[in-house]
Amino acid sequence: MKGVQVGGVNYAGRLTGLQLGLVNYAEAADSAVQVGLVNIMPQNEWFTGFPGELAPAMILVNWHF
Fold first, then answer.
1. Which residues pair with 63 in a beta bridge?
2. How far apart are CA 48 and CA 65, in angstroms?
3. What are φ and ψ of residue 43, in 5° steps?
4. How far apart (Å, rounded) are the C-alpha atoms in residues 22 and 34?
5. What is the 3-state secondary structure of 2-61?
6. Neighbouring C-beta atoms of residue 19, cutoff 10 Å
7. Which of 1, 12, 19, 24 has the fewest beta carbons under 10 Å from its own?
């Protein structure tokens, strides 16, 4: 998915862009930001690539660049 997803629950196999919703899930991300109650990007590791990536699951915001 490239661009913006807005909804209650958002899913993308590969995300490039923005997910804005209550629950956001992206299996992989090239350059992405997730804003919502629960944000999940399994490819991120726990704070090892900060600030380029945050964590696999975060509350309010998560990203991968």
1. 33
2. 13
3. -70, -25
4. 10
5. EEEEEEEEEEEEEEEEEEEEEEEEEEEEEEEEEEEEEEECCCCCCCCCCCCECCCEEEEE
6. 28
7. 1
**What is this structure's pTM?**
0.88
Query: Per DSSP, what are the bridge partners of residue 39?
Result: 24, 58
Contact (Cβ atoms closer than 8 angstroms) between residue 31 and residue 64 = yes
pLDDT tens, position by position, 27-63: 999 999 999 999 999 988 887 887 888 889 999 998 8
Structure tokens given for 8: 């209650």
Residue located via tokens 């990536």: 53
Q: Which residues contact 3 (CB under 8 A, 6 or more apart)?
A: 16, 17, 18
